[in-house]
Amino acid sequence: MGAMAYYPVGTVQFVGEMREFTRPADSGQVFTTGFCPTCGTSLKGSASRIPEIVGVALGCIDDGSVPAPARSVYEQGKADWLGLLGEMAHHARGRDT
Questions:
Q1: How far is Cα 20 from Cα 37, in angstroms, rounded to an integer?
Q2: Tens of pLDDT along 14-30?
């Protein structure tokens, strides 16, 4: 999915057509990805486990106010060359690992 910033549901507005794909998460819950039906670009993500927040793909934030990361998840699959800057929580898999 890539990098996302999470916000309370209702504070974010998506404009335009979006399709969704829902898959099982490691937690046993489900994760839904919203994407552009024309080009396939990921736009948002939401976890059934935390329904009060929605993730916005960082490339979709159009005002340039991308927040600094608070955590990094699923680092077990990150490329070795990817460095993570700043102080944040690190998780090999989901937030509970």
A1: 9
A2: 889 999 999 998 888 89
Count of domains in the chain?
2
Q: Scan for tokens 């039906």, then name that residue.
A: 37
| Cβ contacts of 92 within 8 Å, gap of 6 or more | 74, 75, 76
Residues of the domain holding 39? 4-63
- In a shared domain, residues 21 and 33: yes
Closest CA to 83 of 69, 96, 67, 62: 69
Same domain, 17 and 56: yes
Percentage of the chain modeled with pLDDT above 90: 29
Residue with the bigger pLDDT between 37 and 63: it is: 37
